Automatic annotation (TrEMBL):
GO terms for molecular function: hydrolase activity, acting on carbon-nitrogen (but not peptide) bonds. Gene3D superfamilies: 3.10.310.70, Metal-dependent hydrolases (3.20.20.140), Urease, subunit C, domain 1 (2.30.40.10). It comes from Cutibacterium porci. Residues 48-492 form the Amidohydrolase domain. This is Amidohydrolase family protein. Keywords: Hydrolase. Transmembrane segments: none annotated.
Amino acid sequence: MILLHDARILDLTDGSISDLTDVLLSDRVLALGPEARHHARHARVRSIDLDGRLLMPGLWDEHVHVEQWALASRKFLISQTASCETVLKEVAAHVSRRARSNEPILQGFGFRPSLWSSNPNASQLDAVTGDRAVVLVSADLHSSWCNTAAMRKLGIGGNGFLREQDSFDIQTQLSQVDRHVLDGWVGSCSGAAARLGITGIRDMEFNTDVSTWLQREADGRCPLRVEVSVYPERLDAALRQGLATGQSPITDKPGPSRVAMGPLKVIVDGSMSTRTAWCTDPYPAGGGPDGAGIDSVRSEDLVNLMRQAKYGNLQCAIHAIGDRAVSEVLDAFEATGATGSIEHAQLLADEDVSRFAALKVRASVQPLHLVDDRDAIDVMWATRANRCFRFADMVNAGIDLALGSDAPVSPVDPWGAIRVAVERTVGKRPSWHPNQALTLSQAIMASTRHVAKVVRGGPGDVIAVAHNPFDLSGDALAALTSDVTVVGGEVTASAL
């Protein structure tokens, strides 16, 4: 148990704060005020003096590809706004700097080809890399760019530019890192997230399962609550475990585990940047077989998968970015009665806003994608830009909104995401479609699973901040961090 002394409790509904009080918590908030001090005298309790800091519910990042996030932290970064020519110069510089490294394949991360005149190819990379094997993974993870030497090592053919499943397969090959080493990187990234005030994540990684995270927890590399998603290829194995979404397995660890089963994750279309998000109207320069993106899963297969998930008490988290994909996924939710979320929901038809709400499907969105994609949208989806990132429309319709990062596509940066959800921009650029902005209360509560306040009996996942976010804006809001992060009554990060 922990006694947090001299806290001021922040109410996320209106930004009001309480008088100084004490809070006693373990997995739940046990007591407040004099009652907390009374109970603390009769138990072994760690006491932390918050010295008037504001106490609020912990933050969740609802969409993280954890291993890809950890791997990306070790790759050389490519400018996301650079032209093809500039990217090639950046790659040449990295190859030169790593001339003596023994890495079998140099890996870069972050390019965005959405506004390039054509897709890149291996020969362009060959011209600046020579025989040194190099693979670049795009910022949205939906494409990979290989030179000829890397293609030989990976045993693949083609022109060096891979999209969707071909790209995912390459990334899986490149992820074959010693498990102990990778888990160390995951632990470092998770610790950094805890310092920002994150107390829970949904892991959307392709090849991770509950047992992987239980081992990380046993090794002290799990400072967060983690809900572990499962992809169709592993659905049968997950169903045999008999765990419902949100349910933790029974372990030998004292107290409840932080690891729980997550949702079934299905990818129905691609991405806007790769011109593979499945849309009703075609892209100006074409995209996918019919110029309007791709559908990665047949509708009947999606329905069957979602029915299996519902039978096994799993929620569904369905990736759909284009408006045609969103509409098809809503059809599947309606046909199956499954519960869960649409991940991204970046482009949304007017008639589907009300369907979202009526079906009680959650919208899991990533505000920082707005910053990354706004310029490309204004070119590729110019006539439909007003239907992108419809956060206000969603909330006003009664849709449950959940914020996340999609890391490593965007950084794990909860306060930066909250800032963009409210201001619809960063820096000095004008606000992009400001009519779709959230209030600060709406944005923060979409990051706390709508827990508004630390109360007796509430979750024991809390953070202490030095400043009231309702007094901040712009860079100051985005720079907010947690001075103390507590998960289930255990301190996972502290700057005190």
